[in-house]
């Protein structure tokens, strides 16, 4: 892709080299068919909208500066180039985000996973390199990548100190006694939510909610579901229920669908205006729950997003909505139809709840927490 400055927004009707650049970027992300030809057609607009949606950009189907920059950054995947801290021109891209996320999952403080290689990322990377016997030069090259890859997607290693702490936490038994948690399966009754053949969102999320209820209860929590199979409470009824129950945490469950067959992955939402005001605990839980699900299922991470929805706004406790996969995506659908996978998602949510109520210094790396056998 060409220069970032002085860019005329591209949209339906645009054509030429700039459009071809955009289409190449969309194709490399698997969002556009190979047949696109430099004309900003409907398929291009749809792909741009989808890209904007999953990136949390304003969804207008046009490519202005912001979307163009995000597309440029999305070109990089981990291993494409050497990553290091450049104070003058900080390196940006999805490869940086990926590195930051891996370090965070392993328990290293690499700053926010914002896709910008800053001082904190360098410090976190050096700590990782030291612990794994690599040259602690703060540069992510082949040796560091190999070490990161050997640890796999599902992290089973981590810093010995953290592992010791989490082991003693596991030994200490059911930790959620006294916690009141409301689990809210979306839709219900006549409102099925999104569907794929016989499969309905309302049934899937009720199944998930029941599995989560079982695991949380086994860990000592008091759990309430906002609905049964045949009810469809309004958002006001759901939030009033949680408020009356004096819940410590509210977890709403949904499954997504999209016109684009490429849309897939897990997103989480917490209360926030996007311009400063947000629920800190909500944001933390949204992050923990999504990361645990992604680490354990391999689904795509669509990030956490602040929203002012009634469901999140009218609850008096930290409230999070988790959208687990796209019923319209062939792979996500297969995963969601697998009962074992739904059990895995429930375990991931349990681990996130445990971590939320766990002292920060004893927090185990993502993907490692297991419920003690004796419970
Ligand atoms: Zn839904």
Automatic annotation (TrEMBL):
Hydrolase as UniProt keyword: yes
InterPro entries: MurNAc-LAA_cat, N-acetylmuramoyl_amidase_3, Peptidoglycan-bd-like, PGBD-like_sf, PGBDSf
Record's keyword terms, sorted: Hydrolase
Any Pfam family the entry gives: PG_binding_1
Record-linked Gene3D superfamilies: PGBD-like superfamily/PGBD, Zn-dependent exopeptidases
Superkingdom, natural source: Bacteria
A GO CC term attached to the entry: outer membrane-bounded periplasmic space
MurNAc-LAA domain boundaries: 239-354
Gene Ontology BP, a term: peptidoglycan catabolic process
GO molecular function: N-acetylmuramoyl-L-alanine amidase activity
PANTHER family: N-ACETYLMURAMOYL-L-ALANINE AMIDASE, N-ACETYLMURAMOYL-L-ALANINE AMIDASE AMIC
Protein name (database record): N-acetylmuramoyl-L-alanine amidase
Origin species: Geodermatophilus aquaeductus
């Amino acid at each position: 892709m060409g220069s970032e400055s002085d860019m005329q927004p591209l949209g339906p009707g645009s054509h030429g080299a700039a459009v071809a650049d955009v289409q190449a970027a969309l194709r490399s992300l698997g969002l556009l068919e190979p047949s696109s030809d430099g004309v900003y057609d409907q398929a291009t607009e749809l792909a741009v909208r989808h890209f904007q949606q999953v990136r949390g950009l304003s969804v207008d189907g046009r490519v202005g500066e912001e979307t163009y920059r995000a597309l440029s950054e999305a070109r990089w995947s981990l291993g494409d180039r050497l990553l290091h801290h450049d104070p003058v021109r900080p390196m940006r891209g999805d490869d940086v985000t990926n590195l930051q996320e891996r370090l965070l999952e392993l328990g290293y403080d690499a700053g926010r996973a914002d896709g910008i290689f800053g001082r904190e990322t360098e410090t976190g990377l050096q700590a990782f390199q030291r612990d794994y016997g690599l040259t602690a030069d703060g540069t992510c090259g082949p040796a560091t990548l190999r070490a990161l890859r050997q640890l796999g997607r599902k992290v089973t290693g981590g810093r010995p100190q953290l592992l010791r702490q989490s082991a003693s936490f596991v030994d200490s038994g059911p930790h959620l006694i006294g916690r009141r948690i409301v689990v809210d399966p979306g839709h219900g009754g006549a409102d099925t939510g999104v569907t794929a053949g016989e499969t309905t969102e309302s049934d899937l999320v009720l199944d998930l909610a029941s599995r989560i209820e079982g695991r949380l209860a086994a860990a000592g929590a008091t759990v309430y579901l906002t609905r049964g199979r045949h009810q469809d409470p309004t958002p006001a009824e759901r939030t009033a229920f949680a408020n009356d129950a004096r819940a410590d945490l509210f977890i709403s469950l949904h499954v997504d669908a999209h016109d684009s067959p490429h849309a897939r992955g897990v997103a989480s939402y917490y209360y926030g205006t996007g311009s400063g005001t947000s629920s800190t605990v909500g944001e933390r839980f949204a992050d923990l729950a999504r990361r645990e699900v992604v680490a354990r299922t391999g689904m795509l991470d669509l990030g956490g997003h602040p929203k002012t929805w009634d469901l999140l706004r009218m609850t008096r406790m930290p409230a999070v909505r988790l959208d687990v996969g796209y019923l319209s995506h062939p792979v996500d659908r297969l995963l969601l139809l697998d009962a074992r996978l739904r059990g895995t998602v429930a375990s991931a949510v349990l681990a996130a709840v445990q971590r939320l109520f766990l002292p920060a210094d004893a927090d185990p790396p993502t993907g490692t927490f297991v419920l003690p056998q004796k419970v």
